[in-house]
Structure formats: C-alpha cells, structure tokens
Amino acid sequence: MTGISRDGSEASIKDVARKARVSIASVSRVMNGHANVSAETRERVLAAVRSLHYVPHSGARSLITQRTNVVGVLFPDLHGEFFSELIRGIDAVARRRRLQLLLSSTHGDAAELAVAIRTMRGRVDGLLVMSPHVDAALLDKNLPSALPIVLINSPLNDARRSTLTIDSYRGARAMVSHLVGRGHRRIAHVAGPTLNFDAQERLRGYLDEMASSLQRVAPQVLPGDFSEKSGYLAGRRLAAQPDRPDAVFAANDVIAVGCMVALREAGLRVPDHIAVAGFDDIPLASLVSPALTTVRVQIAELGRAALEQLLLSIESPARTRPVSRALLPEVVVRESCGSEKPPKRRSRRQAARSP
C-alpha cells in the first residue's frame, strides 16, 4: 500500500512503520481502525502518516483484506428528515470506522430493489436494507448467501438475518392512550402509505387502542402518504366536517405539520379547537408553532445500531448470530395537545371569528 508524499515521491507502509518505529502489522491495525493498539502506538503511527502524507491504496488493501471497505445502503427514499437522520446515524459509524457508503433509493418499487441489490454485488462488504418489498425469496435470488445483511424496519421475519425495527405498534398505542388521558374522545388518524410497514403498524396500534380505550367511539382513518401535502389535504377535510374530532394522530410528523397548516388556514387554533400529534420526532417537530406532541424515535440511533450490527457480521461472521431488536419509542408532550381537558366545543363560525 502506497501514498504520495509532499515532494512527489511515493511513501509506503514500510516508510510509515520505519518512521513510527513500529511493525508493519501495527500500522495496518491503526489504519484499519482496530482497537487492539495502544494509544501511544496509535499516535506515533498517525504522526508518521501526517508527516509522510501517506494515503493507503484502497485497491491494495482490498487484495489483502478481501474487503472493499464499502457498505451498501438501500432505502425506499432519500428525501425527508427521517431518512436524513437515519443516514446521519449510519454515517457517524462509517466515518469512525473509515468506511464508505454506497447509497441507493428504490422508490418503494420491488423491481428497483432487486436491480439495486444485484448492482451492489461484489462492490460492498455488506448491506443495510429498508424496503416494504423485502422477502426471503427476493434476497435469496439476488444476493450471495455469504453477504452480510441487516434489515431495517422490515416486515420480513427471517431467523437467518438481523432485523432492527421501530416498535411503531406500541408507540401508536401509547400516543392514543395519551390523547385519551388528556380527555380527547373522538380521535382521527391520518395514515401513511398502504404498503409501508411502519404505517401499517401505526394504524394497527391506533385501531387496537381505540377499541380498548374508547369502545363506543368509531375510529376515523384518513389516507396519507407520509407527505406534508397529504397532511394538508386531510386537515382541510377535517376542518370542513360539521362534527370534527377532538384530536388528530398523524402517522408521522410531516403529515402532522401539513395538517396544522390546513387547520390554521381554516381558522382553527391548535390545540384550542383541535389537538394534533405526530410520530418520529424529527428536528422540525420542536420548532413549529405550537410545538408538536409526538412519538420520539431515536432515528439516528437506529441507523447507528444497524451499521454496528452489520459490521459485527462482516468482521466475525462465524461468531455473530442474527439478532432481532425493536427500539421502543416514547411519547414527547409539547404544546400541540393542550391542557388536561379539551376546551368546550364551539361552532366552526365561532371558531373562525376567534382572534
């Protein structure tokens, strides 16, 4: 493995070892981020690397280690704060371990997912996959059996592969229970995409908690797609209802924000006339006015944990067993759900005249 020094001559790993007064193996361990190196040795090696302007040759390293030092990441979308936070968590681990990320979006399409998986074969040491279309047959057909893979928020229950999920079902039940505890009885739900695993689990949690806590109240579900526009359209529909609900539980924060915009345009105040709650706790949730009550998901932590688990499988495949972990979210109470008891209902005409 060689690099280029400031004067244009090549600096090799042997030059680094000689200058740092350590073995070539010690230099290799430092450059590959291994922990079994003393702090003193690590500092001497890094000082020599800086002095010689040494850059490891990735191709030579790959021939030695049989690794590309690249991790593939396949998501249904790359747009929005949820995916930004997820990638932030993954990237933090990748930078610390000196890895590169190869990202691709499948746009929620099964055929695109299969193509993306096949494209990454031979280019990555392992894969992180989030998709509503993941199943065992698709993975077995398109992936080498030995390639490590970790599934994120996947509907697939496969004992051969590690899966990290958000417990959206329990999070949704906790939010509906919280709204009921605040005195709200007629609670509407703006759902996410029909084929999305998280959206399905949040809808299921909403329906089950409504059936448990408010047996005589019919649930109301409006369609959505995790976008602000779908939340806005749902908000307009709710505002136009002659007997609108006490509260709205949106399948994610982006929907909730769009819904609040529509309610405000209709002359309704959140939470005075109607409470609004979301899911995910994206950074924007605490910045909107009123600040959004939501279900907090440690999104960056989910990405970090997924990559850490994948690296265990890459580095010690024989000793690493697949795991199935569900991260339990928590209700975060802010201003958008109001006081303990909902205010006395007023007509839409009175609400529109309110300052």
Automatic annotation (TrEMBL):
Residues 343-355 have a biased composition (Basic residues). PROSITE patterns: HTH_LACI_1, HTH_LACI_2. One of its GO terms (molecular function) is transcription cis-regulatory region binding. The keyword Transmembrane helix does not apply. InterPro entries: HTH_LacI (IPR000843), LacI/GalR-like_sensor (IPR046335), Lambda_DNA-bd_dom_sf (IPR010982), Peripla_BP_I (IPR028082). Residues 336-355 are annotated as: Disordered. Keywords: DNA-binding, Repressor, Transcription, Transcription regulation. Gene3D superfamilies: 3.40.50.2300, lambda repressor-like DNA-binding domains. It comes from the Bacteria. Pfam families: LacI, Peripla_BP_3. Residues 11-65 form the HTH lacI-type domain. This is Transcriptional regulator, LacI family protein.
